[in-house]
Specification:
Blueprint lengths: L1 H10 L9 H8 L1 H15 L4 E3 L7 H8 L4 E5 L11 H12 L3 E3 L3 H6 L4 E3 L21 E4 L5 H13 L2 E4 L19 H10 L2 E3 L15 H8 L4 E4 L15 E3 L2 H13 L1 H18 L2 H10 L9
Parallel strand pairs: 1-2, 2-3, 3-4, 5-6, 5-7, 7-8, 8-9
Helix pairs in contact: 1-12, 2-3
């Protein structure tokens, strides 16, 4: 996310400095990281500061860097608003309270209740993500790319696997290795694009902890479509207003409708390919980091292009 935002800013003509505080803290320790970050920021003299999680920075360091400067924060894991007892989430909330605008990709009302100046800004994809030639080893009727930390995801995928040719990619699926035809590893870069381009349907499943989020979806939605995937996702009320069924993607409501939609689109390849193409064009025009930087720099909330 951070590198994608930086690339978009550079394309728009901005000079940028990206500080990886978490990596620095691992390499040189937390104490030296504060001095290093303050020194880098002091020499760069930013006109605007965009904050991420800042888990490697003390609050005093963050405050010094943004003091007197316009700023915003973009946090894309919105479902953790109930978990402020966790030190990492509590730190993110504290940093968010320092920022002028706390952009979040869902549950903005719940974050506002915690005292944050929260506004909705969906996740995005990098415009450089593009389809690649199909590869036989990545082909399946249905593909899912994601981590196996959520048993609810596994239960849906197990039902899909009983009926259709499914391949799963990502970490943490050892428990269901055989049933899910697990690829045994995550896919990134060109391999990610190859899975999306080579599979007939790319499935999206929101984690169980994101229940109740009307407009939440992860960056994977936009990445899959940009990479040439025909996207079939969980259609919450807000999401179905951001991507149109039958034009940009397809939506399901529950397990039964998911299985039915898979069957329908496997039998209707012409419709599937048309939606795949139109979805790419629409997402590239409206849902990449290049569109999001306007919100980040202005503090304005997202306006749905389909409204």
């Amino acid at each position: 996310m951070e590198k994608g935002t930086e690339r978009a800013l550079k394309r728009a003509g901005h000079k940028t400095l990206l500080i990886d505080d978490r990596r620095a803290a691992r390499l040189i320790g937390r104490k030296l990281t504060q001095k290093w970050a303050l020194s880098k920021a002091s020499r760069f003299k930013p006109d605007f500061v965009i904050l991420s999680k800042c888990l490697g920075l003390n609050l005093e360091t963050v405050q010094t860097i943004i003091d007197g400067r316009p700023n915003s924060m973009w946090y894309q894991d919105p479902q953790w608003y109930k978990s402020t007892y966790r030190p990492d989430v509590a730190h993110i909330v504290a940093v968010g309270k320092l920022s002028q605008t706390f952009f979040v990709s869902g549950f903005e009302a719940q974050w506002k209740a915690l005292g944050l100046r929260a506004k909705f800004l969906p996740a995005a994809g990098d415009r450089d993500i593009r389809p690649v030639p199909q590869k036989k080893r990545f082909h399946s009727d249905v593909a899912f790319i994601g981590t196996g930390y959520d048993p609810a995801r596994a239960q849906l995928l197990l039902k899909v696997a009983k009926k259709y040719d499914l391949k799963v990619w990502g970490k943490g699926w050892e428990e269901w290795r055989k049933q899910l035809n697990w690829g045994g590893r995550p896919v990134e870069g060109k391999d990610f694009a190859a899975v999306c381009s080579s599979s007939n349907i790319s499935l999206g499943i929101n984690p169980d902890r994101a229940k109740g989020g009307s407009n939440y979806t992860s960056d994977r939605t936009w990445m899959v479509i940009l990479a040439g995937g025909f996207y079939l996702g969980h259609g919450t009320p807000g999401l179905t207003e951001m991507l149109r069924e039958g034009d940009h993607c397809a939506w399901y409501k529950d397990t039964d409708s998911c299985l039915a939609k898979i069957g329908y689109y496997l039998e209707n390849s012409a419709a599937r390919e048309r939606i795949r193409r139109e979805g790419q064009v629409f997402v590239r025009e409206h849902h990449t980091f290049d569109q999001r930087i306007r919100n980040l720099l202005s503090g304005e909330a997202f306006v749905n292009p389909l409204s």
